[in-house]
UniProtKB/TrEMBL annotation:
Transmembrane segments: none annotated. Gene3D superfamilies: 3.40.50.2300, Periplasmic binding protein-like II. GO terms for cellular component: membrane. This is Receptor ligand binding region domain-containing protein. Residues 53-391 form the Receptor ligand binding region domain. Residues 1-24 form the signal peptide. It comes from Citrus sinensis (Sweet orange). Keywords: Membrane, Signal, Transmembrane, Transmembrane helix. It is found in: Membrane. SUPFAM superfamilies: Periplasmic binding protein-like I, Periplasmic binding protein-like II. It comes from the Eukaryota.
Length: 550
């Protein structure tokens, strides 16, 4: 049993069980009834601060409109520690007698809180969801409601990008959590790449949790060194804290990995927080593509909320530079509305936690973050994704990616018309600024061979048809690793002719192979692992291999 679930069992076993009923209310109708709502967030992060501000606004709005029933928001700080999140949940349930708990930005925090709350029938509204939704989740945590979708659609979007630009190999980067594991993101990405674009993950870089290391700079450099001798230059940041993101891009720039023909893609764990990064950090990410959760910012409810949010946020947190509400703030606001609407449908009688949960799950309204409707405890509608491009010290919005549709110039598949399907051929709206200020062409996504690392080409020394390939003694030859050999024949001359017509230098060297031809082919496969082995190579009846040119 791993450390994570051992923690869950310890916390659950120490829980003092309480009756799920409400506090006794006065029979005097003029005395206000108060329902306590718990919130567990990272109070020191901008994401947590935004969530607190948004929830306070929603509570204030409800209290202003309700005469005899009020909400009391009880906030606790988990300090990015699932154990502290569990302790906070115990305190909120046992001491404060809260009826609902909202918050938890990571799945590790959500899981321990859900384990505790489900045992005492307290509904949980989580801002996080697992990368892959287990089939048994609803049975294990029946009182858990996820305000986010899993990562499957986001990984399909990345795979569509790889297909669009013909990137065949990628390097996946993620910051490990304190309990180990990549939360299924890596497996989802590998599956999506294979299904959509026939691409593959060449390297994976696992960054330790930033809270567990004393020298993040050295830890990041150590991982990035692993890809310096790899050909792929398509880097996908699956998950990383803001602090780790800063170190990652700083060191990648210093090591020359954020240059022309490189590609950097960040998922919504980073892209949704771009507004929180200062200009110095943003500029180190120039050329990066980001995948953000989309929400409409031109509706009247959003504009009213945004104005109030900015005023309250700057007043409460004057040290923060960025005060525009993010998707996290919108979801936090919507979580309170889910609770208040459920309470209203129950005529403020919340003596039954099961009835409260049922009403929360039956929510059906358009919130600030999008359509709020649940199925099996999770948001029914998958996120519409927005592709953004970091340019200079800010980012610009490109186009959309719609679940079950793909890239689109509009945010709704009902309005795409006939032209949106041509995005793959025409490119995104407006030019994409790639790393290294590459504008006039798309990046190759792989590193060119150099004089220090030339392309190595295996040539068989024994052939049946010397007109195609032949190796002869030639002491004057200087283009091979063996100075006494000369490589000739139709295939050799054709290769040299193609190289001469390239618009860039391609250092190479011929390497003689004195074994059987099948071993030479296997050597290419074992080293590169690039083409799909079974698609490109066919076994003959006599167990010989032949190369199929497509």
């Amino acid at each position: 049993m791993n450390r994570f679930f051992f923690l869950v069992l310890i916390i659950a076993s120490e829980l003092v069980f309480v009756s799920p009923g409400v506090e006794s209310a006065s029979t005097n109708v003029n005395i206000e009834e108060v329902t306590k709502i718990g919130a567990i967030v990272d109070a020191n992060s901008q994401m947590g601060k935004q969530a607190i501000t948004a929830m306070k606004i929603a509570v204030q709005n409800f209290n202003s409109d309700s005469r005899n029933h009020k909400l009391s928001l009880q906030i606790r700080d988990h300090n990015r520690d699932p154990f502290q999140a569990a302790t906070a949940a115990q305190e909120l349930i046992n001491k404060e007698k809260v009826k609902v708990i909202a918050g938890m930005e990571t799945w590790e925090e959500t899981a321990v809180v859900a384990e505790i709350a489900s045992r005492v029938q307290v509904p949980i509204l989580s801002f996080a969801a697992p990368a892959v939704t287990p089939l048994s989740m609803s049975r294990r945590w029946p009182y858990l409601i996820r305000m986010a979708s899993n990562d499957s659609e986001q990984m399909k979007c990345i795979a569509d990008l790889a297909r669009k630009y013909n990137w065949r190999r990628v390097a996946a980067i993620y910051e490990d959590n304190v309990y180990g594991g990549d939360s299924g993101k890596l497996a989802l990405l590998a599956e999506a790449l294979q299904n959509v674009s026939s691409s593959e993950i060449q390297s994976r870089l696992v960054l330790p949790p930033i809270s567990s290391i004393s020298d993040p700079k050295e830890a990041v450099r150590g991982e990035l060194k692993k890809v310096q001798d790899k050909q792929s230059r398509v880097f996908i940041v699956l998950q990383a804290s803001l602090d780790m993101t800063i170190h990652l891009f700083t060191e990648a720039n210093r090591m020359g990995l954020v240059g022309k023909d490189s590609v950097w893609i960040v998922t919504n764990t980073v892209a949704n927080a771009l507004d929180s990064l200062n200009t110095t950090v943003i500029s180190s990410m120039e050329g990066t593509l980001g995948i953000k959760s989309y929400y409409s910012d031109d509706s009247s409810p959003y504009k009213e909320f945004s104005a109030l949010f900015r005023r309250n946020f700057t007043s409460e947190y004057p040290e923060e530079d960025h005060f525009h509400p993010s998707i996290h703030a919108l979801r936090a606001h919507d979580s309170i509305k889910i609770i208040t609407e459920a309470i209203g449908r129950l005529n403020y009688n919340i003596s039954s936690p099961e009835m409260l949960l049922r009403q929360m799950l039956s929510s059906d309204f358009s919130g600030l973050s999008g359509k709020i409707r649940f199925k099996d405890g999770e948001l029914l509608n998958a996120d519409t994704l927005r592709i953004v491009n970091v340019v200079g010290k800010k980012y610009k919005e490109l186009d959309f990616w719609l679940p079950n549709f793909g890239f689109s110039k509009t945010s709704s598949k009902h309005n795409v018309g006939d032209i949106s399907s041509n995005i793959a051929a025409e490119g995104f709206t407006g030019p994409v600024i790639w790393p290294g200020n590459l504008i006039n062409r798309n990046p190759k996504g792989w590193a060119m061979p150099s004089n220090q690392e030339p392309m190595r080409i295996g040539v068989p020394t024994r052939t049946f048809f010397e007109k195609f390939v032949v190796i002869k003694d030639d002491p004057l030859n200087g283009n091979s690793n063996d100075k006494n050999l000369r490589y000739d024949g139709f295939s050799i001359e054709l290769f040299r002719l193609v190289v001469d017509h390239l618009n860039y230098d391609l250092p190479y060297e011929f390497v003689p192979h004195d074994g059987v031809y099948d071993d030479l082919i296997n050597g290419v496969y074992d080293k590169v692992n690039y083409f799909n082995y079974h698609d490109k190579l066919l076994f003959k009846k006599k167990k010989r291999l032949c190369l199929v040119i497509e």
